[in-house]
Design goal:
2 copies of one chain form a homodimer. Helix content of chain A is about 70%, strand content about 0%. By secondary structure, chain A is mainly α. In chain A, helix 7 packs antiparallel against helix 8. Chain A binds a DNA duplex through helix 2.
DNA sequence: CGCATGATGTTAATGTCGTCAACATAGACT
DNA sequence: AGTCTATGTTGACGACATTAACATCATGCG
């Protein structure tokens, strides 16, 4: 069945993806609070209860959006890291952070759902797993720096926490900054911030 | 009129505070998503629409909670800074960060509403103002470090952004960590993180 | 080929919620 | 006492999340 030829097919064809798409649009437009299943269904041209054939409840659709976001983030981080010489440890850490912030900046709706929607990750194992996979990249990267002698092993744990916290905080400030004028007074030299933090944890 | 003596007074006596209290309890219990005005009113022993005599809408009550949170945070930060010698610049920066994380940890509901509820601060000037007052403490502290020669003036802006992002990220990780077991594998040596960051931005 | 079956959508119904309008009460000021 | 205003209440409405019962279609089995 070709979904392009039929205008009013009883079955949608790919409702699941369409609903995820609609969710992203709505979150981008009205924030995670403003999103409603009913409206997502309307946007997909489908009845308000059709969503339950694909998602158990509202949380589940948000969890799926978050999961896709984590997967994409993982891909972005891997792509960046693959393009850097493997022995330039500090640069790898800085670029990892930059890629994280860049992801948040270019996929704000995803990022908001991933972190700002109060999702109970415990109840959505595949979402949690995707999140942990992304985090693991940072952990591995720090381990690589330790193995290469760029970072004392005793500081590894602190380094992970510090880097993670900083990039996460930078991403939030970046997103908020889009809305708030006051914050634009602060120049957001994100590379400089990350250089400073990497320098701080490596020395 | 003594509110303790009357069991069924038609007027509540201090409904506004009671509603704010109830909001905090509900957010602590069910997260910012789970909070409902109706339930807050129930908890305050009052009809579902009584809230509109005190708050324009749902956003407004959350904005008030956030405002009180920012004010308390400002007080906490000032208290800590007042207790430290004025020329120990790095220690002041570290302690400021610690106080920020401590606030988030001991007032999780406030913190979630302040940052994790998708509040439109533009629409609530007094909330926004309280938030900026808290931020200003950090800005002033960095300025003090610059004036004291502990930090080159060219790095002031980067220092503010980095510190803010890091403490904010640490606070989020700390809150998430309460729920997620996986993250507890990472030791959260927050003082060490802040020492590293302060060292990084000051040198 | 023709039908059974499961996957996918629809309509109907229920309870909750946010919000408004109209009405009620009580404490304060004249 | 009598009026005014702040504060609560009831009633109503539309949006929403969710469930149950029914409809349609695609697919594979005979």
């Amino acid at each position: 069945m070709n979904p392009l030829s039929k205008k009013k097919a009883y079955h949608h064809g790919d409702l699941r993806s369409a609903l995820v798409q609609a969710t992203l649009q709505l979150v981008a437009l009205r924030g995670p609070r403003g999103f409603s299943m009913t409206e997502a269904c309307r946007q997909a041209g489908v009845s308000a209860t059709a969503v339950y054939r694909h998602f158990a409840n509202k949380e589940a659709i948000l969890a799926e959006v978050a999961r896709q976001g984590f997967d994409q983030l993982t891909g972005d981080l891997r792509l960046v890291l693959d393009s850097i010489e493997s022995d330039n440890y500090r640069r790898r850490l800085v670029e990892t952070g930059l890629a994280y912030v860049a992801f948040a900046s270019s996929h704000p709706a995803h990022f908001q759902v991933m972190f700002g929607a109060g999702l109970d990750k415990e109840g959505h194992p595949e979402c949690q797993e995707s999140g942990e996979t992304a985090l693991q990249i940072l952990i591995d990267e720090v381990a690589r720096a330790v193995a290469g002698g760029a970072l004392p092993a005793t500081k590894a744990s602190t380094a992970i926490t510090t880097l993670w916290a900083t990039v996460h905080g930078l991403a939030m400030l970046d997103l908020d900054g889009i809305k708030s004028k006051k914050q634009e007074m602060l120049e957001f030299d994100i590379p400089a911030c990350l250089e400073a933090v990497v320098h701080g944890i490596c020395s």
